[in-house]
Amino acid sequence: MTSKNIGARETAAAVLVRADGEVDEESLAYLHEKVAAALDRPGLPPVNGEVRVRRASAHHVELPWSGRTDIRVGSDLVVVHAREASARELADRLHDRLRSATERVTHRSDTTRRTAAPPPWRGGPQK
């Protein structure tokens, strides 16, 4: 693909995957699978947004593949950036970071992970 021909795909979770630069179909399909695996899980609030992947056209760039996600998980915005040497490494890195970021967002308000009362040095009950 050239920069004039930008490809876009949509995952089952209403996340658009866009490619800019010289991104082949195989790399785009692998990225699409990884994003879908990170976001198509039970228990997640409604998810929508986009993933952009780009390959630098300059040959001297050390890490030519870059990716960025802007995804809304419920009412929270999850932004993930990554730069890698190959498309597979980029897809794997984005998958890992996206998965951990969505885990943090979904468990942020989980009250079972909190203590019953704050410790005394934070204004909790004095013993």
Automatic annotation (TrEMBL):
Residues 99-113 have a biased composition (Basic and acidic residues). Residues 99-127 are annotated as: Disordered. It comes from the Bacteria. Residues 117-127 have a biased composition (Pro residues). This is Uncharacterized protein.
